[in-house]
Amino acid sequence: MIHREPPPTLLTVEGLNAWYGAAHILFDVGFEVKRGEVVALMGRNGAGKSTTFKALMGLLERRKGTVKLMGQDISGRSPSQIARMGLGFVPEDRRIFTDLTIAENLEVGRQAARRWPDDSPAPEWTPQKLYDLFPNLKEMGPDRLGGRMSGGEQQMLTVSRTLMGNPYLVLLDEPSEGVAPVIVEQMAHMILALKSQGVSILLSEQNVHFAELVSDRAYVLEKGQIRFSGTMAELAANEEVRRSYLTV
Ligand SMILES: Nc1ncnc2c1ncn2[C@@H]1O[C@H](COP(=O)(O)OP(=O)(O)OP(=O)(O)O)[C@@H](O)[C@H]1O
């Protein structure tokens, strides 16, 4: 029998609590993402998905708990340190530089290539590879100004800019939210393409259908607490969880 090592854990979150001012929003949130996985953090509006991402990135002043990226504790680090350690973040508001071109926006995100602990190369991105992944960006050409793109195109540029940092893991906040159905389809396609190239993704999502298309596993949040954890098949079979905590 061939012995296979289990895939290493990229992200480990334990006992994560977070506050906005005096408002306690996350309560002992815990989960993990392994190398090569696409994991969905699910829950309705206001469940705490974006807050979890902000807490992971060090963007919330008041937070408590342990966050480890490839075994290294990042819970006390600044957002820029965390990004440089290889945790990529595509926020919900998808901010791009509207007065910079597509090519310039990509350069803003560039970081050196990374290696896995076993010294094999981690996924490495170039503008050319990203243009191949997003034919829309390619068609517009590298000189198109960010401000002259649709919301969905800007979303693709934000994802591409994050990938230019060659992250070990990408946090993708609500990829299907507020974009046209054709772009939603392209986002699903993109996530599967990234997965096939070895990119690991934690996405926040309230659309069950979208999450089922692209994810291996899911965690379900409600009122800042994890209420369910399991495979997509287990979630599909669990009427109770779907009815209580998700919009189907
Ligand atoms: N800046 C803020 N100040 C105070 N409370 C906030 C702030 N941002 C979010 N909240 C509250 O924190 C809770 C969790 O919000 P969060 O944005 O994390 O939810 P979400 O699951 O990402 O939902 P959405 O899809 O609406 O983004 C909500 O009750 C929300 O009202």
Automatic annotation (TrEMBL):
Gene Ontology terms describing biological process: L-amino acid transport
Xref: Pfam families: ABC_tran
SMART domains: AAA
Protein name as annotated: Amino acid/amide ABC transporter ATP-binding protein 2 (HAAT family)
Taxonomic lineage from the root: Bacteria, Pseudomonadati, Pseudomonadota, Betaproteobacteria, Rhodocyclales
Cited Gene3D superfamilies: P-loop containing nucleotide triphosphate hydrolases
Species this protein is from: Azoarcus indigens
Similarity-based family: Belongs to the ABC transporter superfamily.
Keyword Transport applies: yes
